[in-house]
Each structure stands twice: as structure tokens, then as C-alpha cells.
Amino acid sequence: MRNGVPSGTDDRFALGLVIPAGLIGVLLAWTLGGVPAASAVRFCADIAGATVLGLAVLPRLADRIELPWRMMAVLAGLWCCLEFATLVFAAGEVAGSGATALSPADFGTYLARISAGQIGLAILLATAAIAVYAAIAFRRPGQRSPDLVLVFAAVSVTLRPITGHMSQQPAGSVLAGVHALAASTWLGLLLALALVVRGRRGWADALPRYSAVALPMIAAVALTGVINGLVRLGGIAPFVTTGYGRIMLAKTVLLAVLLALGWWWRRSWVVAAARHQMPAEGSLRRAVVEVSVMAVVFGLAASLAVTG
């Protein structure tokens, strides 16, 4: 306890570093290859979506944790707003007017007649449904199921990637969908743990299970990312000769850093937490470090998605 506040509560504000860390990733992508301003909005939407997905998965990871439905409703509402902003930027690009000068008629045409707009509208409706359901679940404790949120969140996270530019390649939709879902689960679950878990015992119960889940997620992200990159660029040379390739190379380097960090955490942090030898504050600080590095990767990924 510190001045009557549960230990670790103040430290959770450090999770706010996730947003500037991701924006650093967007800025890095801009310096490497030049990306639209919509990349920043897309990154924020992706982070919100990953967090909602992670919260929905959390009960399957640690059944003792009570799902924070009010937090879920707020984050899902934010996700919905960010998806709307993403749609506006995309419509402005298609219309050639930009987001600030986009007319309602052009926006309506984009939503009704352009496949990307229709997909974006479906995601918008799904995220709105999650927000409404979570708000109702918060008010009615006896009638709620995280599985419904999990389905809607997983569909929303994967719908745009599986219909994007990679869908034109053999098995491209499958690779893109697996990549997006694995990355969002990897980041979202750790963010959810950092937001929800309290006390040394909570980390001792949940962290080893997360570590076991994270390993196949990391493998899926790495494998599908490499394959997608080689297919998209058509070889090794474009990784250094094109802006898209340089951004992807930076993303790959940071992913390697995360792999090394994860290996070290499994040997130190996870073992100590499982033995109740790691204070909750120490676990939270390590989670903040890892999700911040992940956020930089997400910023680069969002820039690639908008550029592609």
C-alpha cells in the first residue's frame, strides 16, 4: 500500500507509454519510406482492437480474473470511433479530396460501392456491437459471456487483413489473417494482464499461462510475416531498395528484439513470478517494457497496412 492506494496502481499509468511508443513506430516508418497520416489513426485502432481482444481471451487464460466489463465497453467504444476515423481517411484518399474536405456524398459512395468501404462498415458495426454488449453486461452481471465479444473482436481484427492486398496471392488471405490475429492476441493479452492482474499471486497464476500461449503466437507472427514480406516484395533486394521493404526490415529487426526479450523473460521473469518471487510492481514494469516495444512494431505494421 502507498498512501492508501493498492501497490502497483500508480504504475499502471505507465501503460500510457504504449501510444507514444507506437507513434514512434509510425514516425520511424515515415522516415524510412514515407507513409500517410492515416497510419497514426490506424495504429491507435489496432491497439484498441488488440486490447479488447486480449480482455475477451483473458477468462480462458486465468479463470480467477473477473472481466472488467466497464473497461471493455469504454475501449470498444474508442475502437469504434477510431475505426470510423480510419474509414474517413480511407474514403478521402479514394475520393481524392482528403479527409478534411470529404463530402457526405463521397463518404456514402465509399461505404456503399467500394469493397474496402463495405468491409470497414462491417468492422464499424461489429465494434459498435461489442461496445453496446459490454455496456449491457456491465449493468446486468448475470447475463454476459466473453465468448461473444471474442468472436466479434477476432472477426473485426482479421476482416480487413484477409481482404487486403495479400488476398490476391495464393493463400495470402490465410497468412494475413493468421498474422493479424496472432499479433493482436500476443500484444492484447499482455496488455490485458497489465491492466487487470493485481498482486503477486495473480501474476503467478496468469503469467506462465500467457508465456505458453505467447510462444506459438510469436512463431505464427514471425513465420507469416516473413512469407508475406517475401511474396509482397518478390525477393530480398527490395527490403533495402524500397520504402515498403525498409519499413518491413525495421519491423523484422524489432521482432527479433522481442524474440530475444521473450526468451530472457521466460528464463527470469516468468520463473520468478511463478514461484511468487517477483513483486507485482516488477511484473507490471516488465509488461510495460514489452508492450511498449510491441507498440513500436504495431506502429510500423499499421504504416505498412495503410501504405499497402
Shape: globular
Q: Largest sheet at a glance?
A: none
How many alpha or pi helices?
12
In terms of DSSP E residues, the strand content is under 5%
Core attributes:
single chain, 308 residues, mainly alpha, 79% helix, disordered N terminus
Q: What is the fold's blueprint, element by element?
A:
Blueprint: H1 18-33, H2 38-61, H3 69-95, H4 104-113, H5 115-139, H6 146-162, H7 172-196, H8 199-233, H9 238-241, H10 243-267, H11 269-274, H12 280-307
Question: What does this protein structure show overall?
Answer:
With 308 residues, the protein is an all-alpha fold. It has twelve helices and no strands. Helix 3 (69-95) packs antiparallel against helix 5 and helix 6 (146-162) packs across helix 7. The model is unreliable at 1-9 (pLDDT under 50). Keywords: Cell membrane, Membrane, Transmembrane, Transmembrane helix.
Structure at a glance:
The protein is built from twelve helices and no strands.
